# Entry
Amino acid sequence: MKIISMQVGPIMTNCYILIDEESKKTAVIDPGEDADRILAALREEDSQVEYILLTHGHYDHVKEVDALADMVPDPGVAIYLHRGDVREDDARLFPPLAHGFNCWEDGDIVSIGSPESGVNLRVLHTPGHSAGSVTLLADGVIFCGDTLFAGSCGRWDLPGGDHETLAASLARLEALDGDYKVCPGHGPLSTLARERKINPHLCRTAGL
# Structure
């Protein structure tokens, strides 16, 4: 498994390219901007995009989904978003996706390449920043969108956000067995072990 990270757009969203090195099949996580840069990185790796995976539906994470999908040669890509962020009441914050997409749920598995030898991602529904926020678990890595940041957490005051729900999601991440590399939606990378020690929002007794 190879992970390429790049910051895209004016508010520096972290977009991740996740590659199964055996099959060269790829998932793009949160293409919020700069589709041309993302496509150039994919071509440099000589990889084939299988999926576009969205940790949540906010504009800065999904803005270039349609543009990127249009650039990918046939047979195209499968796009995944949690149904909690499929909203028609706020197109500015939750822009609609012109391409068809799949709604995933807690516990779903997405396999990049072969399920036996490729990269398997497990979906954890971790709402609170938005109703449809998810965290994706791979081998030793979590892609947590705007739920968990290095030393902080996502805001809960936007439509679909909720303070107590976010606290429960953070507690769920804290309770994961072992350590994980933390790949957040903004800011630097971290580890779950470090966040358990220093992140005030991740301490079960601290609350938010």
Remarks:
- Residues 163-174 form the longest helix (12 residues).
- The chain has five helices and 14 strands.
- The chain has a mean pLDDT of 93.
